[in-house]
Amino acid sequence: MAGASAADVRSILSLPNPSAAGPSQPRKPAAPTERARKPEGISRELYSLIGPSVPTLAAQLAKPRLKQKPNLGGGGRVKWEWREFKNGARGDGLELSHWVKAGSDPDAEYPFAKYNVQAPSYVYSQDEYTRLLEDSEWTKEETDYLFNLIREYDSRFYVVYDRYEFPNGTPRTLEDIKDRYFSVCRKLVRSRPWAGDEASKNQLLSSLTFDKERETTRKKYVASLENRTPEQIAEEDALFIELQRLEQTERRFKRDRDELLRTLLGIESGLPDVQVDEEGLAGMSHEPKKRKKGGNAVAEVETPVSASPSVISLGPAIPKKAQSAKSAAYDAQHCIVRTEVPATTSSSTKIAHQPVYLRSYKLPAPKMTAAPKIAQVLGELGISHTRLVMPTRDNCAQLESLLEAASALVETKKLVDKVDQDIRTLTARLSNRQSEDADGEGTGDAAPTPMDVDEANDPDADADAEGEVDGRAQSVVSTRSARSTRGRRSV
Amino acid sequence: MVNYGGDEVSALVVDIGSSSIRAGYAGDDTPKAIVPTSYGYVKETPSTTEDVTMSDTTEGEESKLASRPRVKLYIGQNGPSLWRENMEVNNPMQNGLIANFDPVNALVSHALKDVMRCDPSEHPILVTEPAWNTQENRERMAEIMFEEFQVPAFYIANTGVLNAFAAGKGSALVIDIGQSTASVTPVVDGFVLRKGLQYSSLPQFVMAHARHLLATPAARRQGISLVPQQLIASKEPVEAGQPPKFTLRQDRVDKTTVSWRKWAEEREVEEWMQSVAGVIDQGYNEQFAHQRGPKHYEFPTGYNYYFNGIERHVVGEQFFHHSRQLVETNPNIPKNLPALITQSLAACDPDLRQVLMGNVVLSGGGSQFPGLADRLNVELTRTFPHVKIHAPGNPIERRYGGWLGGSILASLGTFHQLWISKEEWQEHGRPIVNQRCK
């Protein structure tokens, strides 16, 4: 209808249908038969792109089953009409108009009228005023004026204070106004009969309390806070951060200590959390001065901490004092060994502090350099020093002395070897010189270098000192004899 | 409907400012009609026949005022900006207040009837007022609305409060920089704290300063003549900084009034300021200013010049700081912005200061000086630790914040109980305005 297509033109002109369409002519996507075979779920555009050649895709491309669209009732047209309404919150009969749904009730109350709520206000009679509310500072007229303003501005005291202009009255502060209002209300509530229970009355009274003095000082303080110089503010901030840091360290330390005491000794440290904080706070109040004076904050910081190691020592230390023959027997029976806790040193920072440990954790270890040799020695004896099966106190002490002896032996052996070596070198040199002297001036200027010595030594070392080579290789036989003598002496 | 609190009763909102009158429907986000407040008038000779005035009233922009000397008013887009023989230009506003009520009727009528094409007697109308408006003024406005426009209901709201509402805040420190007045208004719970209100004619001073700067010859340029294009017959292009070559329309020059010339030249200065001037956001420093680089500007005379950074930024600096020399020579120099803010806060309760500084709302066309908001932020954070400035990025929202707040307020369902109805006006008369609009 819109215009003859190329096919129509061709049929009119009886031209054959060209197999390849021209570039300008849009190709028909698919023949009607093909379109009929278009599998379900493939969009028409995609199908015309990929054609019928990829039928396996169809399964994957099947339409996802979505939730049914919710019926929002948008089917039918909604009729709206411009209708006048009366606002119940208004005193007069003003009728404004707005759009409402045509079917809605024309006499329904205006939905926003319910938000027109008045705050309850207190009204007093002349009699009540003369009996209860007389005040030398306030006249009845001014009190009336104040109550009217408060009613007008719904107890927004900042606004009331702003608009407060009683003719010929004394200038009032915000606190004066609040004080007068709340005191009058309190008196009224107290004197009038109360319908509800006592608790609700007290609650109401407490909501009407106002401490003028406190408010005034608070406000002065707020004002003074604003008058700080930037330097003061910066210093305060820095101090505050410092304080927080200290408190944090303190708290972490205390937690660790508590945990240790609980798990190892089964007792509570008995220090309440608050104490730490209090210490920190108390520290803050005088800290600025001290910092300025002394300049070493570290010393100040440590004061609360230094008390703590003594707490740790409390566990073992207290029974020791009361040690009697009976307890000694008990200890012996149960293999309890009481050790002297090393006296608390002055520097008891967290790093220096030694927590409670298991004995087996602290088995003595040989020196790093000599370790393999000592291990070899012990291996020859058939002792494994790395894992003590029963690390009792005695065993530990024995092991320690054994290791000590072994390391002493190794050291001595090393020394002996060195001395032997020196002796051999020197004797070799001596014999060399003697032979040179005997030969005359053969190779006189050639001073014997250590290399020469070694080369010269090699043959005779092989020849006459078989045992020395064994010694250098740390022979088992040679060490054993030395160990036995030394070891016995030291133990 | 109740959920978001809106209930539109097709109220109209009219915001009368020094530069323009904004009018539109409540609930819209932009005013439908923006009409310049300045108007032109020609004193008519008594010989004018009735026929002429009759035909004039049918024209859109012109209306007639029946005051003692018969004058013809030219209002709207083609009002003062078209040159007319012996046309004077006047503005009814002074320091943000309506000083002359005679043309207000015609101006509002033009905005409502000619531009918006609506009948004011069918719509409740909300009018704005600055916080320092007098009781007499607001009563007069109510009278005009009820008696002249026959509106069914009327309300007058404070621009400071409305600016806070437009920013979505009940309590805010509203800094409004208009064409003639800059004001700082503390708003708490939707009420203006009158004791903390501060305003000054700072924008006028900035404008005068800019004009002085342009008119006086500088080191490398001559004093610039601000002849408006309406008085120029022809001009030739000249190199930057070269004296302009133009011919005046002598026929017009003779019949141009002083007030029109003044108005036109002020517009030139304003345009120059808007396209070239700015504020250094990190505090003024000649070196900084110089680094900002020059900007090219061509005046109607054909004179063009690359204004360097110092010239461009010394103008905006007048909002924040007056040089000592300037203060000494002008005893009545208006208070600058930091002074206004400090004094306003000092008059507020210490408990409120923190709240107000956390809700600073910047509004008004004068606040759109490039860099002004940033600079204000820098100045305020220097003295107050927690400052948050709300400055809408959308220029319409910034310029017409007062109107926007009115549009929000008048489309609230809970607001409709506050309208002063015609019935109430007739029953109580003028005092109802002050009772209702606190």
Automatic annotation (TrEMBL), chain A:
One of its GO terms (molecular function) is transcription corepressor activity. It comes from the Eukaryota. Residues 134-187 form the Myb-like domain. Residues 472-482 have a biased composition (Low complexity). One of its GO terms (cellular component) is Swr1 complex. Residues 1-42, 430-491 are annotated as: Disordered. It is found in: Nucleus. The keyword RNA-binding does not apply. Residues 452-468 have a biased composition (Acidic residues). Keywords: Chromatin regulator, Nucleus, Transcription, Transcription regulation. Belongs to the SWC4 family. Component of the SWR1 complex which mediates the ATP-dependent exchange of histone H2A for the H2A variant HZT1 leading to transcriptional regulation of selected genes by chromatin remodeling. Component of the NuA4 histone acetyltransferase complex which is involved in transcriptional activation of selected genes principally by acetylation of nucleosomal histone H4 and H2A. The NuA4 complex is also involved in DNA repair. This is SWR1-complex protein 4. It comes from Ceriporiopsis subvermispora (strain B).
TrEMBL record, chain B:
It comes from Ceriporiopsis subvermispora (strain B). Transmembrane segments: none annotated. InterPro entries: Actin, Actin/actin-like_CS, ATPase_NBD. Belongs to the actin family. The lineage of its organism: Eukaryota, Fungi, Dikarya, Basidiomycota, Agaricomycotina. Residues 45-57 have a biased composition (Polar residues). Signal peptide: none annotated. This is Actin-related protein Arp4p. Residues 43-65 are annotated as: Disordered.
